[in-house]
Amino acid sequence: MSKAGYLPRGDKERVLWLNHFASKLAVHATTLGLTPADVAGIANDAAMFTFLVTQVEMHTAAKETRVSYKNLIKDGPIGANGGMLPMPVPAIAAPAVVAPGIFPRLARLVQRIKATPTYTEDLGKDLGIVSAQTSKDTTNLKPALKLVIKGRQVEVQWVKGKADSIRIEKDSGNGWQFLTIDSIPHYTDKTPITQPAIWKYRAMYILRDEQIGQWSDVASIGVS
User: Fold this and answer.
1) Helix 36-75 and helix 11-32, axial crossing angle in degrees, nearest 10
2) What does DSSP assign to residue 115?
3) What is the reported pLDDT for 4?
4) Which domain holds residue 65?
5) N or C: which end of the chain has fewer CB within 10 A?
6) Are 110 and 31 contained in the same domain?
7) Pick from 104, 127, 150: which residue ends a domain?
8) Alpha helix segments (H runs only) across the chain
9) 60 Cβ contact list (under 8 Å, min separation 6)
10) 82 three-class SS
11) How far are the Cα atoms of 2, 62, 70, 153, 162 from residue 110, in angstroms, in the given order?
């Protein structure tokens, strides 16, 4: 079960959420650099989850009706109106079969989306992947980075605090590039040092799959 704060808890509510997400994903796929396979995969997952939840509801209601009818016929009372025999549950055309793990797959895709440079909070709100549970007191959270050379590698030291993890970006001379999502301090950058250079790092906290707070101050270190 995903613990993502943007997901509703109940299956019926998740049906609505997932279909909304699938429709919006098709709109924003190009901006986010997603493939047609990404969009089709979520559409198939939404169709299958909708089908399964509908089937469960239909058969649960049908079972309750049949149990009540069985008890009436079994126990009476004598002279009661038996009514009509419950009819078979109507068949619904099944969608394409999908692999197990609809919501774990979704969580991975959302993480990819939020790590995309073109992602914005407004876009996230339109997709429905901005958690309503994120506390307002996270607005000013800001990681403090310390860089240390250990064994010809740079260790990015940080404090976890109330966050789940941290997004680290690096500029080694060609602009900011995504480096990693780290959940256990500290992170060792294993990029080979081939020539003298100044490497810069910055980071932002992540809580419940959302980037929160502010970017850290830029930390720089000379490597050679």
Assistant:
1) 170
2) T
3) 65
4) 11-127
5) N
6) yes
7) 127
8) 11-32, 36-75, 102-114, 121-127
9) none
10) coil
11) 12, 37, 48, 31, 21
Q: What is the pLDDT of residues 117-174, one digit of tens each?
A: 899 888 999 999 987 655 455 777 899 999 999 888 999 999 988 888 999 999 998 8
User: Could you tell me which residues come within 8 angstroms of residue 55 by beta carbon, excluding any fewer than 6 positions away?
Assistant: 92
Question: What CATH number is attached to the domain comprising 159?
Answer: 2.60.40.10
List all residues 6 or more positions away from 115 whose beta carbon is below 8 Å from its beta carbon: 167, 178, 181
Between residues 100 and 213, the one the model is more confident about: 100
Strands 187-189 and 165-171: unpaired
Its sign, for the CA torsion 137, 138, 140, 146, is: positive
Q: Tell me how far apart the alpha carbons of residues 115 and 23 are, in angstroms, rounded to a whole number.
A: 21
Grouping H, G, I as helix, E, B as strand and the rest as coil, residue 211 is strand
- Reported pTM: 0.60
Q: 2 pLDDT exceeds 50? A: no
Tokens of 4: 């993502």
Whether 163 and 74 map to the same domain: the answer is no
